[in-house]
Design a protein that fits this description.
Strand order of the largest sheet: 4-3-6-7
Mean pLDDT: 86
Order of helices and strands: HEEEEEEEHEEEEHEEEEEHH
Largest sheet: 4 strands, antiparallel
Oligomer: single chain
Shape: elongated
Length: about 290
């Protein structure tokens, strides 16, 4: 009798381990917000097996729970909530629920879930790098940078918003610049998209980087991604800036080869001349005394 009970218990345990009930679904792990220019994605692990799926619920502080229709009973581990977080100043939390797969039923009311950290779109989204155009005045006394505000994932009245539309006068731009191929750098902060710099040495090449700057945010979120580097032209460039190293090396080789040929030709001519003079003297008849 004892052996039969033990065998039955083992069989039940084996069945439960190979075919988990809804209450034994694995919890989501590493639930993380990833957001740039208000393109906000919730990610987590692990990828589910065929036995279960994930559903995302999100809510603002003191707000009702909501669901994104694309993140219900889903077999993936990402959920795009960009258009769902409509109050940019609210603090949101998301719960990732482990549920039966799409089409399956369950008698359970509550399922295992994992909560995300709190997220505030206005304060926490990263700002991408801006583009800018560089222009040097004809008299070389002033350099102007024309900065383009990065676009966001937000729309209003069928128009895509840029970061200036969202942050308004809170948005500034920080310019880092210095002479080309020099380690010394200067920083200039502007509240506008047209940035004029006049403290530059005339005729010198300068390199510039631009990044969004929002001083009202926490220190680790104040600066956006740095732009690609752009450099102004040098009025007196070195030969290595005009031509590549290979071209300069080839030119030096040709000059040395030409000098060598000239020297060799001169030596040959001198030897032939000496030889001709010597032969001429030996061939002359002796004069009578």
């Amino acid at each position: 009798m004892v052996e039969i009970k033990a065998a039955a218990l083992f069989l039940i345990t084996f069945c439960l381990s190979t075919h988990p009930t809804s209450g034994s679904y694995p919890r989501a792990q590493n639930v993380t917000w990833k957001s740039t220019n208000f393109k906000t994605i919730l990610t987590w692990e692990p990828k589910p097996s065929a036995d279960y799926s994930y559903t995302v619920e999100f809510y603002a502080v003191n707000g009702d729970r909501q669901r994104n229709p694309h993140c219900i009973r889903s077999p993936v581990t990402v959920c795009d909530l960009s258009s769902s977080l409509t109050d940019l100043n609210a603090y949101y939390t998301a719960d990732v629920l482990s549920e039966p797969p799409l089409g399956a039923t369950s008698d359970h009311i509550e399922f295992p879930h994992t909560s995300s950290p709190r997220f505030n779109p206005y304060k926490d989204t990263d700002i991408g790098r801006p583009d800018f155009k560089l222009e040097v005045s004809e008299d070389k006394k002033k350099t102007t940078l024309y900065v383009t505000d990065p676009l966001t994932a937000l729309f209003k009245d069928d128009r895509q918003l840029n970061i200036r539309d969202v942050f308004s006068d809170q948005l500034q731009y920080k310019v880092t610049y210095g002479k080309n191929k020099s380690s010394g750098k200067k920083v200039y902060t502007s509240k506008t998209n047209v940035i004029e710099l006049s403290d530059l040495d005339r005729g010198q090449s300068y390199c510039f980087n631009v990044q969004a700057y929002i001083p009202s945010r926490s220190i680790d979120k104040q600066l956006g991604e740095m732009s690609q580097t752009q450099c102004s032209n040098d009025d007196n460039p070195s030969i290595f800036e005009v031509y590549s190293v290979g071209v300069v090396a080839a030119a030096i080789f040709l000059v040395l080869l030409l000098i060598g040929l000239v020297i060799a030709f001169t030596v040959v001519c001198c030897k032939r001349r000496k030889k001709a003079l010597k032969s001429g003297k030996e061939g002359m008849p002796l004069r009578d005394v």
